[in-house]
Amino acid sequence: MVFFDEKQTAAGKRQLMKSYRKELWFNTRNRREFINITPEVEACLKESGIKEGFVLCNAMHITASVFINDDESGLHQDFETWLERLAPERPYSQYRHNNGEDNADAHLKRTIMGREVVVAVTDGKLDFGPWEQIFYGEFDGRRKKRVLVKIIGE
Ligand code: ZN
Which of 18, 52, 65, 133 sits in a 20 to 30 Å window from 30, CA-based? Predict the structure, then answer.
């Protein structure tokens, strides 16, 4: 969906402020996964028609993350090892939150890896630094969950 909000600039020239919103859905096979969602976000940007502005991309669940880092499998294994050291999944009984639930570790992992990213849009492209890619970090998967993509600009 694209909404237009017309505004007059000081020069009297008409500018169009656009707003775009989309939900990306995931249902991972494993409890924990990292998925490179850069192509999906780029597709959203193309669909929005926005050339200058910002993309906000956030997990809509408190046991999943959206973060930016390198698309390198060794690093992803390092993240997994590091997060398991900080907040091990088991034993479930070590967490007070796991009173009828088993996902306390997922809440903690999500907090470390972050809720959202904001990326500048320049000349119709995601204005990344070297090697930057956007990832969905799932910490309590095997069910339907979503990510919000919101793009504002012109
Ligand atoms: Zn929970």
Answer: 133
